[in-house]
Write a structure and sequence with these properties.
alpha/beta; 4-stranded parallel β-sheet; 13 strands; globular
Length: about 350
C-alpha cells in the first residue's frame, strides 16, 4: 500500500454507492411516499463497527481510520467528534492481534493513517507493528486513562474550541452501562456540532479535565444527564472555571439522547434528514453506539432503543408519520426497529 494525495468528497458522497443507505442520505422526502427503513447487521463488536464503516464509506474513501479495542469502551468514549472531524470510521479490534475483519476492512478502505485510541495496554504494540508492516502510518491518542485520552483528542483536533460537551465516564452502581449511557448521545452531538467531548467523574471534575479547561478557550459547555449522572458540584466547578453551563437531560438515557438531538435542531424526527436508532442499554451497546460518529456528523438524529422496545422519549420523538428515512443499528432488536419504523410510517 502506498500513500497518496486524496481529494476529499463532500460528506454526503461518502456512503457506499448503490447501497440503500445512499438513498437515505440524499433522496428528498416525498409526502406521497413513505421512506425506507435500513437495517444494519453484525454479531460481534468487531462486525458491528465494520457494518457502520461499510454503510458510510466507499472503497478508498477515508484517509484516516480510527481503531480501538473490541472488549472495552473506555478509550472510544470520546471518538465521535474525531470520526466526524477526520471523516474517519471507528473500527474495533482484538487488543492483542489485528482482527481479520479489521484487516479486510482496512484493505477495502485503503487509508494512509490509522490512529489508535489508547495506549499499548488497550491496543497492543503487536497490533501497531502489524499495521505498520502493512504500510499504514500508525499514531496514537495514548492517554494514561480514558479522561486523559479525551483531553488528548480535544487538544489535537479542537485546539481553539470555545464549546464542549461534558459527560460522565464512570458508573455509580453495579450497572457498568452507566459509564457509556450518555456518551453514546454525547458522541453523536459532538459529531454533529464539531465540539470536543470531555469526561468527568459523577461527583468531581477530574484534575486532567480541569487543567485542560483552565488552559483552554472554553466559554460554554453542555452537561449530559441530570445530577445523578453529573453532579451539581461538577457543574459548580465548571462555572467557577468561567465556563457557562447548560444541561441536556431526560429521565432516562433515551430522554437525554432526544434532548441532545434537540440541541442540534432536531426537536422531533420531522426536523431531521434521517434518524439513526441505536441500542442503548445492552452490555455491548457501546460498540454500536460509539461507532456512529461519521453517520451523526452527516446529520442524523440519533435516538436510543431499550432492548426489545423503545424508550418513551424515543417514541415521542419519532411521532407518527414523520416521513424520514430510518437506519436501525446492528444491535437494535427487530421489535424495536419495527416500532420505530411504524412510528415514522416507513416501509421495510
Amino acid at each position: 500500500m502506498t500513500s497518496r494525495s486524496r481529494s476529499r468528497a463532500p460528506a454526503w458522497r461518502r456512503a457506499v454507492p448503490g447501497a440503500v443507505l445512499l438513498i437515505a442520505l440524499i433522496a428528498p422526502a416525498s409526502p406521497a411516499h413513505a421512506e425506507t427503513t435500513t437495517r444494519l447487521s453484525g454479531d460481534t463488536n468487531v462486525e458491528v463497527a465494520v457494518s457502520y464503516s461499510q454503510a458510510t464509506f466507499a472503497d478508498g474513501a477515508p484517509s484516516v481510520v480510527l481503531l480501538a479495542r473490541d472488549d472495552d469502551f473506555a478509550d472510544a468514549l470520546t471518538s465521535g467528534s474525531a470520526q466526524a472531524v477526520l471523516d474517519a470510521p471507528l473500527l474495533l479490534t482484538d487488543s492483542t492481534v489485528p482482527s481479520p475483519e479489521v484487516l479486510a476492512e482496512l484493505d477495502r478502505l485503503d487509508p494512509d493513517e490509522v490512529r489508535i485510541m489508547g495506549g499499548a495496554a488497550a491496543v497492543s504494540a503487536t497490533v501497531e507493528t502489524a499495521l505498520e508492516g502493512l504500510g499504514y502510518t500508525v499514531t496514537r491518542y495514548a492517554g494514561t486513562d480514558r479522561v486523559d485520552t479525551a483531553v488528548l483528542v480535544a487538544e489535537d483536533l479542537f485546539p481553539n474550541a470555545t464549546a464542549a460537551i461534558v459527560t460522565r465516564a464512570f458508573a455509580s452502581s453495579t450497572d457498568p452501562t452507566q459509564a457509556f449511557a450518555d456518551a453514546i448521545a454525547a458522541g453523536a452531538y459532538s459529531a454533529g456540532s464539531m465540539t470536543p467531548v470531555l469526561l468527568t467523574d459523577i461527583g468531581d471534575l477530574p484534575e486532567r479535565t480541569a487543567d485542560y479547561i483552565a488552559g483552554s478557550a472554553l466559554e460554554t459547555a453542555i452537561i449530559t444527564g441530570g445530577a445523578a449522572a453529573v453532579s451539581a458540584s461538577v457543574e459548580a466547578e465548571l462555572t467557577d472555571a468561567g465556563v457557562a453551563t447548560s444541561r441536556a437531560a431526560g429521565p432516562t438515557r433515551g430522554g437525554t439522547a432526544t434532548a441532545l438531538a434537540a440541541e442540534l435542531g432536531f426537536a422531533s424526527a420531522a426536523d431531521a434528514p434521517r434518524v439513526l436508532l441505536v441500542e442503548g442499554t445492552g452490555a455491548d451497546a457501546w460498540a454500536g453506539g460509539l461507532t456512529i460518529g461519521a453517520q451523526a456528523g452527516n446529520g442524523a438524529a440519533v435516538v436510543l432503543s431499550d432492548m426489545a422496545s423503545l424508550f418513551a422519549e424515543t417514541e415521542a420523538f419519532l411521532g407518527a408519520g414523520a416521513d424520514v428515512p430510518l437506519i436501525c443499528g446492528p444491535r437494535v432488536s427487530d421489535s424495536a426497529c419495527d416500532a420505530a419504523s411504524d412510528a415514522l410510517g416507513n416501509e421495510g
